Amino acid sequence: MSIEYDGRTGKPIYIDEREFKVRYRSSLGFLEEYFRGLEEGRILAVRCMDCGARYYPPRSFCIECGSRNIRFYQLSDVGKLVTYTEINVKPQTHSDYTDYIVGVVEVDGVKLVGHVNAKFEDLKPDIDVSISVDRRDGDTYYRIIFKPLERD
Ligand SMILES: [Zn+2]
Predict the structure, then answer these.
(1) Would you place residue 140 in the very low, low, confident or very high pLDDT band (cuts 50, 70, 90)?
(2) Which fold has domain 27-74?
(3) 76 CA from centroid of ligand 1 (Å)
(4) What distance in angstroms lies between residue 122's CA and the mean position of ligand 1's atoms?
(5) Whole-prediction pTM value?
(6) Which residue among 19, 33, 39, 142 is least packed, with the fewest CB closer than 10 Å?
(7) What is the CA(72)–ligand 1 centre distance, in A?
């Protein structure tokens, strides 16, 4: 605890700095099937059964036609790398990661964002990548992982 002075008003302010852990509890509802898929290593997107629009992340209604006639479908485990970048300045949640590559992959009519497991210099747009889901040790959230496919 310390007493400091507000830079704008000059009035004394009390500073108490401490770390705290937040546990989010969210109702899954419509997304239960999506999260069950992730637990099994499958990534699901949704398709509007009325106009054919596809969405990832899944949404419960179609923003193209307003329909709620939405169905999940499983994405292929191979997609095409659209773009990528190396992250050197990390958000706090990833501060203990070494520098990493994030990419956008197009698959079955939708685009995914995920980690790219590769050397930056080995990547180029339009290469085929495998798509998988994992959880880093100690993390409670899933990551989508892309890996360049071996070429002949
Ligand atoms: Zn629609």
Answers:
(1) confident
(2) Rubrerythrin, domain 2 (2.20.28)
(3) 22
(4) 39
(5) 0.79
(6) 19
(7) 13
Write the secondary structure of 78-131 as one string of H (helix), E (strand) and C (coil): EEEEEEEEEECCCCHHHCCCCCEEEEEEEECCEEEEEEECCCHHHCCCCCEEEE
In this predicted model, what pLDDT tens digit does every residue of 28-42 receive, in sequence order? 899 999 999 999 999
Distance in Å, CA 62 to ligand 1 centroid: 5
Dist. CA 12 → ligand 1 center (Å): 57
Rounded to the nearest angstrom, the distance between the alpha carbon of 63 and the centre of ligand 1 is 7
Structure-token pair, residue 64: 């193209």
Reduced to 3 states (helix: H, G, I; strand: E, B; else coil), residue 133 is strand
Cα separation of 50 and 115, whole Å?
A: 33
